[in-house]
Amino acid sequence: xxGIVGYVGKAxxxxxxxxxxGRLEYRGYDSAGVAVLNGNGVAxxxxxxxxxxxxxxxxxxxxxGCVAIGHTRWATHGEPSEVNAHPHVDxxxxxxxxxxxxxxxxxxxxTRLIRQGHRFQSTTDTEVIAHLVEEHxxxxxxxxxxxxxxxxxxxxxxxxxxxxxxxxxxYAARLGSPLVVGLGKDEAFLASDVPAILxxxxxxxxxxxxxxxxxxxxxxRLATLDGRSVNRKPSRIDWDVSSAQKAGYAHFMLKxxxxxxxxxxQTLLNRLDAKTLDIAFDRRTVAFLAQLSRAERLVIIAxxxxxxxxxxxxxxxxxxAGLAVDVDLASEFRYRGPMLDRNTTVLAITQSGETADTLAxxxxxxxxxxxxxxxxxxxxxxxxxxxxxxxxxxxxxxx
Length: 399
Hints:
Structural class: alpha+beta
Oligomer: single chain
Low-confidence stretches: none
């Protein structure tokens, strides 16, 4: 699972990127790289292997600049190697791109771009994005060239772009892969996950699918792919910075095993009225749960460990709530043609609120008229916004 980071501001961009990439190592990767606008063009450093290899390369050949993007890659198209590591640049080395996801139509785009004279260095699907933006930039300003390029992509992506044409800006877009914007004082950040930027800011904006964002030191401007402006208030992350660190444990899994009692306590305490000791919910959730008892059917959708929690929940809900419950693996749910209607309630369980298959299931449920309740840990995430009501676990960051 690749990791994206980006920085635009007044501080040294490379230092901010390397710190952020270090906090994304838990996602797994086989190579890493950064690209920086240094006043003379786009300077790129990338290495196969661990992040320490990249750090050593930058120490040997330092690069400086206040606008930068970085990436940890987990190979999909093309073997793990330095040439296939991100960022990828265009023919002239004037723009650089990082990307998570899979571009399903990259082969046909690459064939077209080669005919137009573009020269490719890697065997990745990502490199076509850099050349596609370069091609559109021949007849349009960078922002419009970026929008045109993104509209041609099929598949899934979270991507970031910097270019010498606009040295104070960073562009990004999302479809199917999580991407979050961090807003600081005279600086802005881009990341695949909140822990990457948590020490630098607690004000974040989650991108929705089919949205783009333009970042500069003054903040972020969101828009749809057809250019319509999007106004979305930032969410505030209340997690303690130390909760995203190992705190003396050998690894994060061991730390989180020991944190389980605390996580359960946090989930319960946020539902407990301090005076009456009754379980309390916000008005939106109370109204939703009141009509839940009239639902003829409840369908739980989730992936991974959340799916296994759903299997346990099925027995508990049928025994104690008297509800008819089905449990579906979210990755299969939308492909089996589920029969949903207004008398069906879909319960989506997701730690991050960004699980792609679960989000797709939520959207299908809404399209078919079903109500959606989410159990989620991340406030403001995509599934939390798409659901009719949310039960937040308040368990802190999962690394």
